[in-house]
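Field reference: sequence -> structure
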Amino acid sequence: MTSEKKSPTFVRNATGLVRSSSWVDMMFLNLVSFGGFWSIIYAFTYAPLYGGDPAVSLLLTAPGILALLGVYYIFNTSMPRSGGDYVYVSRVLIPAVGLAANFVGWAIFLWFWIGDAASVFSSQGLSQILSVFHALTGASWAGTLSSWFPVPVNDFIVGTIAIVVFTSLVIVSSRVYYKIQNVLMSIALIGIAITAILLVLAVLNPSSFVNSFNSYATHVNAGLMPNAYDNISAAGAAVAPTHSPTNLGANLLLVPLWFTVLFWVFSSNYLGGELKNANKTAGKALFASFGIVFAATIVILEAAYYGLGFNFMVGIDYIYYGYLPNTLGATPNLALIAGILTNNSLLVIFLGIGIVSGFLLVAPWGMTIMSRILFAYSFDRVVPVSLADVSSRFSTPTKAILVASVGGEIMLLFLSGLLGGTTSSAAFALYSYASIGDIGITFVIVAIAAIVFPYRKKQLYEVTASVKRKVAGLPVITWLGIIALIYSVGTVVWYTYDQAFYFFGCPAGGVVACDYNSFLILLAVLFVATIAYYYILKSYRARQGVPIEVVFSEIPPE
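Structure field:
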């Protein structure tokens, strides 16, 4: 481990991390944060329930996302250190709030995403692809494995193996991991492009998908005879909202959804201390990954609405969320539909590699991001200083990576369905919706920090800010912060209300009557507890002769 001479304030005079990551590495890291297909799959199963139109609502969302990315870009290039918004907010606003906003609003959910990725890649990704392959080829082994992977104990075993393998890889060599990541995500992007093309072809020839879907339903004995497509479409038509580009109300309701689908490209900020030429690398990584996902989401969702049929999409979404029984042999989301659209066993396998890779790589992505957050906490002496140890052999924060991995393994116990007294899909819904709403709180505080940065920390802004231009008398970062704040607040309010009182069916006034609301209360308590923890720690460090407030008056060393 590093033995650099200790600083009287920070743990060391140098981090020990190496600036070796290119913009391509970070672009693909940002794309991994979407789970490859996963963010689009999520939108596919959620957006139709509100009506409106994907293209219109996405265009309404774009200004908020671009403003948020602009905030992160300016902060990242002004303070190019690992730790991301924890570093920014703790320096610009109040250290205790920076710690609480980052840990409760974002960091602890990385444990969830590690465990989730280790579970979902097999229980959904592999299961769906094998189910379609079985229907196309009649291979009995594929049908057997398709049913084997979702079994909780099997899902847990396979997920544990994935976590162990990726933990070892992330510890031993970041460069090797990035090479594997970049190759697999390239395959995933090709798979996304193929899916988009297949959906556009379905728009031109809708009957081809209808025939393929009915054939698949027959092979898996779905029991939806004589016409599975028509039966599901009829069920969807009974509950479908109005699908219209001019339905402003429905399109506005979709804005928080798209905000949470698209904001993930900020992930590369947490490796700010490992970027080559941060001023160029950060911007390319952020905005290139946003452009790719934005374009893919518009094309795939818009084509799906017209190529698959809007009522059909609502129908399978109701099956996905458990409002209707699922007899389709696998989870009915975009991954399954993409496989059916191919109508070709070899192409199914190729798409499967891309889809599964997108799911699976979220585990090492989560380990990498969380380890850098824990490293930043430790470097500032707010958690045990041993978590800032960097291997002299591998140049990675080994102990922080292990803590991230162990947390992910614990989450896997719940997400696989082994613990918690619930199904894996219910556990996933609880934690994922809570995390999406809660991450919005982090963005609210980051946006506030951006608004006041030029005024509250004028000297730091003048010395470090990479963009100091003004528009109408206000600094650019202040304008971006205002726009990002509006969208972030809207997202938090909508997800808190919508998920607590609509999706989970909790009655007004019955705040503690459902798990989701209880979880939100727990997060609020944890936020306050983290602030209290900081001030207790501050007193403790003062007795040790370490003035922790001095730590937050300057940017960490490189």
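Note: The domain at 23-544 is CATH 1.20.1740.10 (Amino acid/polyamine transporter I).
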